[in-house]
């Protein structure tokens, strides 16, 4: 029976996972030695780096579990677990160092590919070709290269000029849009002022209508009162409580007759 299993099943499970990762790392680095393509080497190295991160996480879990069960274990068992953890760390560090070595070699290979690419062979061919040319041919070749350079410069100038034209047109369009927005804002202000003025006029008209209604009501009451007085006077001419209203007084002749009779 595995001594770690006798201590804790969780420790045994973590130990098994770490052992599986170590085997995968060993096989992965052996496979990496046989790969010649730089891109495939980089991908394989990234995969191995991920496995090493998982292994580091599991070793931390193993250490936490060891500390949890340390109080109920005897000294020999705790020593065995500590040595097992140190062995795991040592083996992981060896794979980390191997990974750094492969990463350095891979970076150097990339730099070599950059400096020893097709351009260098092309340059060597140019050197050999130049050595076999006459002075006139060299001058013609140089003039041809200068013409191509001038054409490239002219194309660049045209691109810059077109870019400036596009920028100028864009600025003009933005300026026109800004002016249009300013006019719209001014029109909105005018509309707002007109609406406010119209609201004030409506309020004034409302107050005038209310005043006119009060005047009409007062005139109506006055007319009603006059009509009532006229009706009462016609019905009872001798009523002394109601004063004579112009136009309704008895004829002057009747008054003189009454005075003579008295």
TrEMBL record:
GO CC terms of this entry: endoplasmic reticulum membrane; ER to Golgi transport vesicle membrane; Golgi apparatus; late endosome membrane; SNARE complex
Extract the GO molecular function terms from the UniProt entry. Answer: SNAP receptor activity; SNARE binding
Tell me the ranges covered by the T-SNARE coiled-coil homology domain, including all copies.
Answer: 143-205
Under SMART domains, the record lists: t_SNARE
Q: Which residues form a coiled coil?
A: 45-72
Indicate where this protein is primarily found.
membrane
Its family remark reads:
Belongs to the novel plant SNARE family.
Listed name of the protein: Sec20 domain-containing protein
Native source organism of the sequence: Cephalotus follicularis
